Amino acid sequence: MDDVGKGPWLDDDEQKAWRSYLLMNKTLETHMERHLQREFGLSKSDFEILVNLSEAENGRMRAFELGRATQWEKSRMSHHLTRMEKRGLIRREACQARYPEVVITAEGQAAIEACAPQQAARIREFFVDVFGPERLAELGKAGDEVVETIRRHEENDCPPEVRGTC
């Protein structure tokens, strides 16, 4: 069993930690999304787009910028923006560039302002307060290191078809 940790397989402690992380992530995401959907009629994807737009200068971004921010594929972005536009949460406006800008509407702004405080309170209750300041700082540092490791992998070793295109 000594060589297990050195090969492709995870040892028992690594496997337990990985599965615990997966379960935590899935449980937290599912619970948060249920609240968004039932209380505000928004999906996790709606919320992600509205957050990005509400934080952008003048409440507008190009679709490719949203794709980069969300790490979504172009077709997923296009389909989702169409659904949000039909619901009045965003609109597309022509601009001097080739493609239109995506703009948060008054309805979209009202939706994000209504649900964001509840989302923040739940994140605090189910995540921030559970970890506490020291463990939260360590988690943030570890998360940054994982993202940076993946970024380097994508730049140097990752096959193009796996990298994804936003």
Describe the structure.
The chain has a three-stranded antiparallel beta sheet with strand order 1-3-2. It has helices at 12-40, 44-55, 63-70, 74-86, 106-156, 160-163; strands spanning 60-62, 90-93, 101-104. Helix 1 packs antiparallel against helix 5 (106-156) and helix 2 (44-55) packs across helix 5. A hairpin with a 7-residue loop joins strand 2 (90-93) and strand 3. The radius of gyration is 19 Å and the shape is globular. The chain is 70% helix and 7% strand. The protein is built from six helices and three strands. The protein starts with 11 loop residues before the first helix and ends with a helix. By secondary structure, the protein is mainly alpha-helical. It has one domain: Orthogonal Bundle (Arc Repressor Mutant, subunit A), CATH 1.10.10.10.
The gist of it:
By secondary structure, this protein is mostly helical. The chain has helices spanning 12-40, 44-55, 63-70, 74-86, 106-156, 160-163; strands at residues 60-62, 90-93, 101-104. The protein has six helices and three strands, in the order H-H-E-H-H-E-E-H-H.
